[in-house]
Write a structure and sequence with these properties.
It contains 10 helices and 4 strands, in the order E-H-H-E-E-E-H-H-H-H-H-H-H-H. The protein has about 210 residues and is an alpha+beta fold.
């Protein structure tokens, strides 16, 4: 399990097992950003992610969850509308109600958008991949730390739900009621999608989608 695939192989596998149509999207990615052809894909992990490598794009990986259940629970999540808003608008404007099929292609394109952003960092560092990695990682930490909850919503939510290291106790002592907590989770989710390192991949994904769904 979790073998390392090319994006083409991963697309085929996703389309075969989930009934998605990611191959067309992938073909378009290679036209727009041929440098992404070297990025490896692992079908696994608990949520889609981009893992940059200090050695450059060739050793960087995109992880795509192949489990239908993950996408179904995303669709049902209370945070989904805030996180998915630009894509929701995109699909609804084309008469499509987003479901698992759309979510998978968005996830793949978004993570490839992270890889494309990382490629920009490498270009700006004149090909010094170690320097690019350092800047990329530094920028990411700064952006995430500036969020209302100081980190991604999923991490804060888990810390609250499971009271990790007394997190919920401390937040309640600081005056957070259930209602206030849900409000800040929502604000945090919206702020997360507005982080430069999240907006760039979203825009990359929307650009590819716009050339497919005309
Ligand atoms: Zn992202």
């Amino acid at each position: 399990m979790n073998e390392v695939l090319s994006i083409a192989e991963a697309s085929e596998e996703l389309d075969r097992t989930l009934g998605t149509e990611t191959r067309q999207a992938y073909a378009r990615v290679l036209e727009v950003a041929p440098h992404l052809g070297v990025v490896a894909v692992v079908l696994g992990g608990t949520y889609p992610a981009f893992c940059p490598s200090k050695d450059g794009l060739e050793n960087s990986q995109v992880e795509i969850t192949p489990e239908r259940r993950f996408y179904e629970s995303e669709l049902a999540s209370p945070h989904f509308p805030a996180r998915f808003r630009p894509f929701q608008e995109f699909f609804v404007a084309r008469g499509i109600v987003p479901a698992v099929k759309e979510l998978v292609v968005v996830a793949m394109l978004h993570e490839l958008g992270h890889a494309d952003d990382y490629h920009t960092y490498i270009t700006h560092a004149n090909g010094d991949t170690a320097a690019a990695f350092k800047t990329y990682d530094h920028d990411w930490r700064n952006q995430v730390e500036a969020l209302p909850l100081g980190g991604p919503t999923s991490a804060a939510e888990a810390a609250w739900d499971e009271n990790i290291d007394g997190y919920q106790d401390q937040m309640r002592e600081a005056g957070f009621t259930n209602e206030a907590w849900l409000a800040i989770l929502e604000a945090n989710t919206i702020a997360y999608t507005q982080l430069p390192q999240e907006k760039i991949p979203d825009n990359f994904a929307l650009q590819i989608l716009a050339s497919i769904y005309t």
